[in-house]
Amino acid sequence: MSVLSVLTAAIAPGVALLAYFYLKDRYDTEPIHLVMKLFLFGVLLVFPVMVLQRAFAHGLGDDPLIFSFIISSGLEEFLKWFIVYIVIYQHASFDEPYDGIVYAVAVSLGFATLENVFYAFLNSATITSLLSRALLPVSGHAMFGVMMGYYLGKSKFTPDRKTRYLAFSILFPIFWHGLYDYILLTTKSNWVWFMIPLMVFLWARSIWKVNRANSKSPLRVMQAEDQVKI
């Protein structure tokens, strides 16, 4: 394959998934420049994560449990969460629960996209292998982003439970990402029998969270009131 073909195949899944979740915002789509800003932050995040993971692995060893839940998912999801929280959580554009999903997914898919590009060029990837990565690690990062953003939205718009939902917004992505990695590390020959049910479950839960977050939008109530007045 040509360089352009490989690059396109590596980038396309992340962009397509981001467009999908962006367009699922029913009431007030987010400023595209902010979404792309978060996506770019996710891309740039790959470099410090690579350095930190190398250092953590050197200090903590290669135990699958430690690698999966601390070195891989713990570090990656915490840094993604930190970017979303610092950059966008208090921003005026974050004005409905679903917005948390859009921005967290943007960071997650920025990260996954550059990872995919590195994989494509370092492993002489084929279209088939890139397609399998679109269905697994790239969409996996999107699912973890949905979880993170869903609970960030709930924390912002449920003040009396802010701390609880903030904790959920980081703990759930770390757990599910860690479980995903642990399956791949410990079931090398028959991982597909564990991974397919996991991904089906994560997609089903993510779609439910998307619909749930949209249903809680204050803009939905405002639009309904405007229709009644008309």
UniProtKB/TrEMBL annotation:
Membrane topology: Multi-pass membrane protein
Keywords noted in UniProt: Cell membrane, Hydrolase, Membrane, Metalloprotease, Protease, Transmembrane, Transmembrane helix
Keyword Transferase listed: no
Example of a GO MF term: metallopeptidase activity
TM ranges: 6-23, 35-53, 65-88, 100-122, 134-153, 165-185, 191-208
Pfam family, one: PrsW-protease
Localization of this protein: Cell membrane
Family of this protein: Belongs to the protease PrsW family.
Protein name according to UniProt: Protease PrsW
The organism's taxonomic lineage, starting at the top: Bacteria, Bacillati, Bacillota, Bacilli, Bacillales
UniProt gene name: prsW
